[in-house]
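Reply to dn_fold:

You asked what the input looked like. This is it:
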Amino acid sequence: MRPELQRNAVPSVLRIPRIVVASGMQGTGVSTITDVLQRATPALNVVDGGSSWTDISEACAPGFAKLIAVTTHDIVSVSSTYALVKMVRDRFPAAPIEVLVNLSETRDALKTYERIQLAASHFLQETVGYAGAIPHDGPTEGQDHVGSMIGEGAVFAIQDVAIRLDEELSAVESRTAIRAEQRRMIQ
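and this is what came back:
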């Protein structure tokens, strides 16, 4: 059986480690970002958590490696993202969370992230990471790849995030395998 068929035979929610991509509200581009992340690094198990609290909880419940909270610079989206961070922290206190700012240039994305981080630090005594910025650029003429509603710059930015996540998880998996082997040798 081909490896991609084997991989797809197991529901993605059950495979670990898992990256959950979610948002506190609709319209932030979660599905497009999830799709581009998955295509950029097929070895990653990326789950679209959507924007419904129930769907996000179900995506996270069996255990996950990281939550990527997608937001925009809009104040309602920022508030919803803070609520998402709070909800995930309440239910999964040790979960790593990063904020990915969609439809924004780097400078504005950092300001948006800082607002969320300031609220999380002040009210939750927690730190959230910064996953990056996805620029607001339209598709180029004749574009025929996934995410045809987004431009090349956005696709490249999402691919950069995917590569970093894949490298981070590979390093964690390697350390975990080494520790397990060391424990086995001691016994």
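Strands lie at 19-23, 46-50, 66-71, 97-102, 129-134.
Hope that clears it up.
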